[in-house]
Structures are given as structure tokens and as C-alpha cells.
Design brief:
The complex is a heterodimer of chains A (367) and B (395).
Chain A: H1 7-23, H2 26-33, H3 41-49, H4 68-81, H5 87-101, H6 104-115, E1 121-124, E2 140-142, E3 145-154, E4 161-166, E5 169-174, E6 180-185, E7 194-208, H7 214-245, E8 247-248, E9 251-252, H8 257-286, H9 291-321, H10 328-340, H11 345-356
Helix pairs in contact in A: 1-4, 4-7, 4-8, 5-6, 5-7, 7-8, 7-9, 7-10, 8-9, 9-10, 9-11
Chain B: H1 7-23, H2 36-52, H3 71-83, H4 92-105, H5 108-119, E1 125-128, E2 144-148, E3 151-162, E4 169-175, E5 186-192, E6 198-203, E7 212-223, E8 227-228, H6 234-248, H7 254-270, E9 272-273, E10 276-277, H8 282-312, H9 319-341, H10 359-366, H11 377-388
Helix pairs in contact in B: 1-3, 4-5, 4-6, 7-8, 7-9, 8-9, 9-10, 9-11
The chains are: A alpha+beta (367), B alpha+beta (395).
């Protein structure tokens, strides 16, 4: 049993960190967040050239064929860099959904261009009730056309095609077809833009059944947790650095226990979230029986911890932490958006309760 | 990353599981809630049995009666013990903390003299560290030992000594040089508790029982050969013991916590609440799910820490997050038990209406000690701040 990264995993993590710090420094993040879509074509090309757009997908569709743990390591570094744009919506979310539900023919048509970096995509899930349990969807799909209004759709303005969830299945529509209208929603996270999308008899192709989407959502949820972990680590690093240099009363503020103990808690919360994310990724990769519970456990803990670490980081930065020029609020905004996405801690606690309490007996986890 | 057991780990688990199946006593549940002084001979006998199977100290090197078990095998050992609800071992401090310190710092004579009887539970060990004026600031301790020819003459007082009432021997930290900086003048002595001048008094704690003792030393003569490690190097010896304490304890807690939450889920199914049961109450469900998540994360943190320790070779200051995590989690768990049980939660052992023989009222009170014993949460956060994050020393 070995709960550390192996050499090639460490290599992937380090090269992703170098890639993002070189290609997507905070100046670039700020430039993109001020743009309408937060998308940059040349950055996207570089992501594709590094194999990141196809990282977990089968080689027959142009992917790299790595495992889910590797995806989570990449997502963690993307979160640490606060990577703007449609990487999550296209690769992690759409790619996984297509991979989980579509036919081989459809994968060639939709997954392969994602892997090659030639297409961007997103998934339209929520409707007006904004419920993650997928029970209350009213989008209709009949005779090759979908109709309905979807909200909180990430990166829809730069998507070439949009996957649409409906009670009768998962469909794909051309984002530029006449029946598809995209409106920006003005929201907290400036690096990941949200949209409302109206489908009015938009031509759509069915990719597969709705029931088969769950594993893809589980993976997307864990990747989101990994992004949160990356953001927590960056917030912790910035805060410790600040506490070591900022002086008040003739001392660095990091020498005060009221400050130091908050930093210690940030460390505990970050490491605990990381343990949960890595285990959930491994559990999905190995298909262990408690994989879904592991996903909910990671989302429960990191949803709350991501916010808490942000709270502590801003507080320790004092007035500086409340300024626009300081980067902490950008991570804080992302943490709130990620906390809500795919169900917040409250949602996943109920999901976990159904998985472990309502079952006959809570089984002991084997070593 | 591979969380499947290796072939060696699986073989270790299977061998121990098979041994437990034919050896673990089946009447522990009738002893569990009795006072420790009544159940102690039972626990001694159980440890002897484990020792006969060479299972009493799996982490110890083979030449000292252990199995040179890896950290993962140690984790497996404690999981298997918890799985069958095996009794604890009588000589917990000797096996877990003091034995390893003697193996690391002791002379050959000391190892031969003490190690076998630690394993067989013939000699029970206690730990004389804290003093009335030296708790978190352990290095300021005042119990003094003056070398007089072939003996140290010890005078002073210790407090919060576990197993003091049954201890045959004590790992005692004393001041041997009062003229140098506080960390530099300490030594560790191995003290026979039957020596003239040693007095043991029970220390009654807020649960009403006396798990711990106060020790008084008046002109106690300790042979100089019972010095452990070098004179005035006692701080390093004592720290080594504390690292074992922080590193290993979390491993055995996971399934104990798991047993508690399983029981709480059971109780919530039969507890009426708002026209249904507590198990149907959204707030209780939220709280139990949160506990369940944190118990699992405690296990995962431990496994990651073990992997790091296996790579680095020694328990590190990261162990402090485990100490904070389990102790605070245990307190939250007991509070939620109280919320589920309502008025029944306050009933003590012996009351005919008490749920589960009063373990929940006891646990509620006892867990207040968790964030104090074995290094307070504040000290653990200092350790993380200074040694892990590199912040300036704050004390």
C-alpha cells in the first residue's frame, strides 16, 4: 500500500506546475478575466500540444490514456494557477460525459476533436430550480430537437458544441445552430464565465442514456475538488509568505499565535482535502465499491474547507487582503463557485447519508 | 499511488487475522466497562498471549521480539485488532513508547534487562514527564537528580502519570544540570517504582475516575547505570518518545470511531424525532454524514502520513495534524451523540435507564481531555506553524 505519488506522477505534477507558471501567470489570469469569455486561443493550443486536452482519454481517439489520478494532479495545478477558460468544461466535464455515454462513432466525432484541441464544449445541466439531483429537469427532446432553458452553463460562449441533459438522455447540439441562444450570466468567479442557454427546437443528436452520466459527474466532481485543493495550497502559500514579511508592533505577524494557529489550520484543511481528493480519484480509477461515497466525502470536506481557508487567508492579510489588487479574492471567488458546482457540502452530506446510513449496515472499510 | 495491499501486506494481514480468530478472547465485552484495576490482570494475560505469538510489538526489530513491521503493516495490525474488538494490551506505554525509546537509546545491558519483561507484561511501565509547573512547557520541569557517586538522588513531583498505580518502572525526565539552558540540562532515568521514597497518589479527573496519578520522589536513589542515553541529552530522548506517541496513536482510532458512528446510526433509527426517527431528521443526517466523512479523512491522512514516513524514515511534525484532527473529531462525535440521545445522554453507568451502559455520558466528559493530553492542540498548532510552515517561534 503506497499513498504517495510515483515518479511519473511527480513528474507530471511538476511539469504541469511549470507549464502553468510559465504560460498562465497571474498577469495573464487577470487579463483573461477582464475579457468577455476568459478564453485564449494560443493558450488553448499550448494545452493541447502538452497533451492536456486528451490526458485521460483513449489513444484511439487521440488521447494520452493516463489514469484518473493523473487527471486530478493536473486539475490541482490548474486550480493553483487559477487557469481561466474552458479546460474544465471541455476536457474534464464534456470529455468524461462523452466517454461515459456515447458510441464509438460519436466519440470519433466529438471526443477526438477535444483531444486534439480543435473543439471546445460544455455541458448544460441545471435549469431554473438549480438542483443537482437531476430529478426536476424539464428540457424536452423529441424528433431530433431539444427545447428548454439551461442555466449556469460554464464557458458556453466559446463552446463549439453543447451537451444537453434531459430526462430522456444526453444530447449534443451545435452551439451555433439557430435554435441555440446564449446569454452571459454575471457571476462571482471572473475566470470561469457562466451562461444561460435557450434551446428552441435546436437540432440535437442523442449520445446516450442519462443513467450512464453518473461516473463522469463523479470524476468531474473530484477534479473540481482537486482544483479547490490547488487554490487552497496557493492561498496558504501566499498567506504564510505574507505572515513572514508583514511587520506590526515591531514583529512579523507570523510570530503571533493568533495568526500562526490560523495558518496551522489552513495547512490541516488543505492536506485533509488533498487526502480525500487523491483517494477518491484512486477509488474511481480502481472502481472500488465505496468510490461514490469517497467522491461525496471529498466534496463535503473541500467545499467547506476551500471557503474556510479563503476566509482565514484574507483575514491574515488584513487590509491588503480586502483590496482588488491582491490575488486572494480571485481564488476566493473561484472557491465559492466550485463549492456550489456539482452539489455543495449540504447536498453531498445527504447523498452520503443515503449511501452509508440508509444501507443496512455501515460496512467497515478494509485496510 | 496504489492503495491495494502488497503481497507481503496481504500475507501479514492473513496471518494475523488467522491468529486472532483462534486466540482473541470472546468475553472482552463483559470486562470492557469495568474499572481498569479490575480488568488489569485480564489485559496482562491477553498481552502475554499476543507475546507468545510474537504479536505484542510488531513494529519492534526482530532481534528484540518484534516483526520489524513496516508502518503499513502496523496500520494493518491495529485495524485487525479493532475489527475483532480485541482488548488493549496491559503495557501500552511500554510497548508503544518506552520500549522503542530504550531500543533506540539504551545500552545492551539495559535492553537485555528491560525489553523482554515489557513484551511479556511482567513489568508495567509508566511515563514521568509532566509536572504541576511543566505541562506544555515540558523543558521547564524541576524534578532534580543529583549524581552522588554511583547513584542519582531524585527529588520532585510528576503529575498526569498514566499507569502510575500499576507501574513497576517509570521513564522519568529529570533536571541534572540546573546551570544551563532549560532544554540542555535534562536527563532520562529508568526508575524502579518500588524504590524507597517513591509515593503514588491517585489523581481524580473530571470523569470521576482516576486514570492518572501524581508521583512524589523524596531522596529516591536510582543507580547511575539506569541513565537512558547520555547525561543532559534527555530532551532528545524524551522528544523521541513523544514522536512515537503522536505518530502511532491515530492508526488504531479509525475503527473505534467507525464502531461509534455505526452505533450512533443504529441509535438514530430508534430515536423518535419530529414525528419520525432521528435517522430521518435532515439535521441529524447532515451531522452524521459530516462525522462519517471526517472519520474517513482521518484514516486517509494517516495512510498518507505513513507513506511519507516510510519515505523519510522517521515520524515528522506532520503528525501534529493527526493529533489535532482525531482529538477534535472525537469531541464533535460525542457532542452529536448527546444531540441524538437527548436527556438520556446524561445518564451515567449504573443507571437503569442509561443507554449503552453510560458510555456516551462518559465519552462526552472524557474527550475534553483529548485536546489536552499528549500535547495540547495549541502546542500542536505551534509545531505546525514553526516546524512545518517555517513561521517564527511564537513562545
Amino acid at each position: 500500500m503506497q499513498f504517495g505519488l510515483n515518479e511519473s506522477q511527480e513528474l507530471l505534477r511538476d511539469s504541469a506546475r511549470n507549464f502553468f507558471s510559465g504560460e498562465c501567470p497571474m498577469g495573464e489570469v487577470r487579463r483573461l478575466m477582464e475579457s468577455d469569455t476568459a478564453y485564449d486561443a494560443s493558450l488553448w493550443r499550448k494545452l493541447a500540444d502538452h497533451g492536456y486536452t486528451g490526458i485521460i482519454f483513449p489513444e484511439e481517439y487521440g488521447g494520452v490514456g493516463l489514469g484518473k489520478v493523473e487527471l486530478i494532479l493536473l486539475a490541482e495545478q490548474a486550480g493553483r494557477a487559477l487557469l481561466p477558460g474552458p479546460f474544465f468544461s471541455t476536457v474534464v466535464l464534456s470529455g468524461s460525459v462523452i466517454d461515459a455515454v456515447a458510441s464509438a462513432e460519436q466519440k470519433k466525432k466529438y471526443l477526438a476533436p477535444i483531444c486534439r484541441g480543435e473543439a471546445r464544449s460544455t455541458v448544460a445541466i441545471l435549469e431554473a430550480p438549480a438542483s443537482w439531483d437531476l430529478q426536476a429537469m424539464r428540457t424536452t427532446a423529441a424528433n431530433g430537437k431539444v427545447s428548454g432553458e439551461k442555466l449556469f452553463v460554464p464557458d458556453a460562449a466559446v463552446a463549439d458544441f453543447i451537451l444537453v441533459l434531459a430526462p430522456t438522455g444526453v444530447f449534443v447540439a451545435d452551439a451555433r445552430s439557430p435554435g441555440v441562444t446564449i446569454f452571459p450570466m454575471s457571476s462571482m468567479d471572473l475566470t470561469r464565465k457562466l451562461y444561460s442557454v435557450q434551446f428552441k427546437n435546436a437540432p440535437a443528436e442523442k449520445l446516450g442514456d442519462l443513467e450512464r452520466v453518473r461516473p463522469a459527474f463523479d470524476l468531474a466532481t473530484v477534479a473540481l475538488v482537486a482544483e479547490i485543493v490547488g487554490g487552497m495550497q496557493r492561498t496558504l502559500d501566499l498567506t504564510v509568505e505574507y505572515a513572514k514579511t508583514r511587520k506590526q508592533f515591531g514583529k512579523t505577524i507570523g510570530s503571533f499565535q493568533a495568526v500562526q494557529h490560523q495558518c496551522a489550520d489552513m495547512y490541516l484543511e488543505t492536506e485533509s482535502s488533498r487526502s480525500a481528493a487523491y483517494y477518491a480519484a484512486w477509488a474511481l480509477q480502481e472502481n472500488v465499491p465505496d468510490a461514490s461515497a469517497a467522491v461525496s466525502i471529498a466534496k463535503i470536506y473541500a467545499s467547506d474547507a476551500g471557503r474556510t481557508v479563503g476566509n482565514r487567508g484574507i483575514q491574515i492579510h488584513g487590509g491588503m487582503g480586502f483590496t482588488w489588487e491582491n490575488d486572494l479574492h480571485l481564488y476566493y471567488r473561484r472557491a465559492k463557485a466550485s463549492e456550489t458546482a456539482f452539489g455543495d457540502a449540504t447536498f453531498h452530506r445527504e447523498r452520503l447519508a443515503r449511501l452509508v446510513m440508509d444501507a443496512a449496515v455501515v460496512a467497515g472499510t478494509s485496510a | 499511488m496504489d492503495l491495494n495491499l502488497t503481497v507481503e501486506e496481504a500475507a501479514f494481514r492473513d496471518e494475523f487475522r488467522a491468529w486472532l480468530e483462534s486466540n482473541v478472547p470472546n468475553d472482552w465485552s463483559s470486562w470492557r466497562e469495568k474499572p481498569l484495576d479490575e480488568s488489569f490482570p485480564y489485559l496482562r494475560a491477553w498481552q502475554r498471549k499476543l507475546h507468545e505469538g510474537r504479536w505484542a510489538a510488531v513494529s519492534w526489530p526482530k532481534e528484540y521480539g518484534g516483526r520489524s513491521a513496516s508502518l503499513m503493516q502496523q496500520a494493518i495490525f491495529w485495524e485487525e485488532m479493532a475489527r475483532v474488538e480485541a482488548p488493549p494490551m496491559a503495557n501500552a506505554l511500554g510497548l508503544g513508547l518506552i520500549g522503542p525509546t530504550i531500543i533506540a537509546y539504551g545500552t545492551e545491558v539495559q535492553k537485555n534487562r528491560f525489553i523482554p519483561k515489557i513484551l511479556s507484561a511482567e513489568e508495567i511501565w509508566c511515563q514521568g514527564f509532566s509536572e504541576p509547573n511543566a505541562g506544555s512547557d515540558l523543558a521547564s520541569l524541576q524534578t532534580e537528580a543529583r549524581l552522588d557517586d554511583e547513584h542519582y538522588i531524585v527529588n520532585g513531583q510528576k503529575v498526569w502519570t498514566s499507569y502510575g498505580w500499576v507501574g513497576d518502572w517509570c521513564e522519568l525526565v529529570v533536571r541534572t544540570d540546573p546551570t544551563v539552558a532549560k532544554h540542555k540540562g535534562l536527563s532520562v532515568l529508568l526508575v524502579d517504582m518500588k524504590s524507597p521514597g517513591v509515593e503514588v497518589r491517585p489523581l481524580r479527573q473530571m470523569t470521576g475516575e482516576s486514570e492518572f496519578n501524581e508521583l512524589f520522589f523524596r531522596d529516591v536513589r536510582v543507580p547511575a547505570e539506569n541513565l537512558l542515553g547520555k547525561a543532559n541529552d534527555g530532551w532528545n530522548v524524551a522528544m523521541s518518545t513523544l514522536m512515537y506517541e503522536r505518530g502511532s496513536y491515530g492508526a488504531r482510532l479509525h475503527l473505534i470511531f467507525k464502531r461509534h458512528i455505526n452505533r450512533l446510526v443504529e441509535l438514530s433509527r430508534t430515536t423518535p424525532r419530529n414525528g419520525g426517527t432521528a435517522a430521518q431528521d435532515p439535521l441529524i443526517r447532515q451531522k452524521l454524514a459530516q462525522l462519517f466523512a471526517e472519520i474517513e479523512i482521518m484514516r486517509l491522512n494517516q495512510l498518507r502520513a505513513f507513506s511519507r514516513m516510510t519515505a523519510s524514515g522517521a515520524p515528522g511534525p506532520e503528525g501534529s495534524i493527526q493529533k489535532i484532527f482525531w482529538s477534535e473529531l472525537n469531541q464533535r462525535l460525542q457532542q452529536i451523540a448527546q444531540e441524538i440521545l437527548g436527556p438520556y445522554g446524561q445518564l451515567l453507568q449504573g443507571d437503569s435507564y442509561a443507554v449503552d451502559e453510560g458510555i456516551w455520558s462518559y465519552g462526552y466528559l472524557r474527550t475534553r481531555g483529548n485536546t489536552i493530553e499528549a500535547g495540547t492542540s495549541e502546542v500542536q498548532r505551534n509545531i505546525i506553524g514553526h516546524f512545518v510552515l517555517g513561521l517564527p517561534r511564537s513562545y
